[in-house]
Amino acid sequence: MIAAPMAQHPIELILTRELASYLATPMFLVGPEGELLFYNEPAEGLLGYRFDEALEIPLNEWASTYQLFDSASGERLPIDEFPVVAALRERRPHHTSLTYQRPDGARLPIVVTSIPLIGQGGELLGAVAIFWEDRRG
Amino acid sequence: MRVELWGTRGSLPAPGTETTRYGGNTSSVLVVGSEGEHILLDAGTGIRPLGLALPEDIARLDILVTHLHMDHLQGLGFFPPLFGHHVEVHIWGPPSTTMSLHRRLSRYLSPPLFPVRLRDMPRRPELHDARPYFRVGSIRVRADRICHPGGTVGYRLTDPNGSCLAYLPDHEPALGQRHFPAAREWTSGFDLARHADLLIHDAQYTDEEYPDHVGWGHTSVSQLAALASLAEARQLMPFHHDPSHDDEQLDAMTAVVAERAPSVTLLPGREGSRLELAPA
Ligand SMILES: [Zn+2]
Ligand SMILES: [Zn+2]
Which domain holds residue A94? Predict the structure, then answer.
């Protein structure tokens, strides 16, 4: 049977977005293919980009905008190693320290925890990343 | 398809002289397809009389359960076809990775809550996870998870002539939303309700009652009007009436929905109603 085109996100993603919009913790939400669906105001502050309501951005595109670096080597982080991508691929949480480059070129150390969102029926719905500036270093 | 309402009450049966027009039985809707399919939406207390009124010669019955709250299951233990030997009964419910539908249903259908175990019923039902898309005879069914505590789906039934029924008896699409409705892609239940020829939907609270019941899983009349308008439903039936609301209050609540959703044809959600659903 042909599935109707999706107009609406699964309820788990809707509720995650609502939760994120109430939190002071930066939070970033992607769909099952890694497509960017939402990030909250605290995340806007840290990332240095406003969230654009109008667009659902494919993984390849946002991964080239939001620049992440391996903190030890200083190398650009391959997409496969982005914490949300790893969480989606392996269906388990990931926790890591990285360096983020803001649009003005400033680099800051961040800590990211990413969690896959798996529905009660076992379906992979997306992933969420919670991150914050690492002020220890 | 033909739609018959055998129970429209939410939460708890509400029999009595104050509720004779809207009825006191909990969620029970019968859908009869053009090829003779018999589908029950939920198994509230209305399925007892419904089961007694079913024709003798049907071979198969499908019960589509939206979730496992008691008001949607209570009729199962008293559903005559499960105690006869003639009809094949199939029960569909929301999937879970932690507990099978059999185990979840058995929490009610076993002592001490109920004397007979599911497995000891003369006509043991066949249980199925409600996958996102399945078929019952010629009727296409879509099951989608919606906002209500504890793993709940709504159903959308489409028959071969294209007429479409959306059934979301327990639903709180406004939960957490600062402005309701949000954009369609961020609105729970939108896909199920979109362009439905009939939307049967939760209308438990007045606008004044809702703020004290945020998170309880239900909808206020103004929220319902907003959702039905956003989804461009053709006809709307408010459902899952609060047990504390009498006929007079339900008339008034129905009038509020009608006023707030002028583009939608409003049908009062009364037990005993029947209608033939044709595409627009
Ligand atoms: Zn209910
Ligand atoms: Zn419920």
Answer: 6-133
Give backbone dihedrals phi and psi of B265, rounded to 5 degrees, phi first. -80, 125
Q: What is the structure's pLDDT at B54? A: 95
A55 reaches B (C-beta below 8 A): no
Counting as low any pLDDT under 70, the low residues of chain A are 1-6, 54, 137
> Closest approach of chain B CAs to the CA of A93, in angstroms?
18
Q: Which domains does chain B have, with CATH numbers?
A: 2-276 (3.60.15.10)
Cα dihedral B32, B229, B244, B143 sign: positive
Could you tell me the distance, in angstroms and rounded to a whole number, from the CA of residue B39 to the centre of ligand 2? 20
Candidate from B94, B132, B185 with C-beta closest to A8: B185
First to last CA, chain A: 55
* pLDDT one-digit tens code per residue, B41-87: 999 999 999 999 999 899 999 999 999 999 999 999 999 999 887 89
CA dist., res. B101 & res. A71, Å (int): 48
What is the average pLDDT across B120-146?
Answer: 95
Ligand nearest to the CA of B150: 2
- Render pLDDT for B177-235 as a digit per residue (tens, 0 to 9): 989 999 999 999 999 999 999 999 999 999 999 999 999 999 999 999 999 999 999 99
Tokens standing for residue B112: 């001490």
CATH number reported for the structural domain that contains residue A23 in this entry: 3.30.450.20
Contact between B176 and A19 using a beta-carbon 8 Å cutoff = yes
Q: Give me the residue from A6, A15, A121 closest to B191, CB to CB.
A: A6
ipTM of this predicted structure: 0.81
- Residue A106 in any domain: the answer is yes
pTM value > 0.80: yes
Q: Which amino acid is at A130?
A: I
Size of interface A-B (CB pairs under 8 A): 63
CA distances from residue B259 to B27, B56, B220, B223 in whole angstroms, order as listed:
25, 43, 14, 13
**Residue of B68, B141, B145 for testing the chain A interface, max A β-carbons within 10 Å:** B145
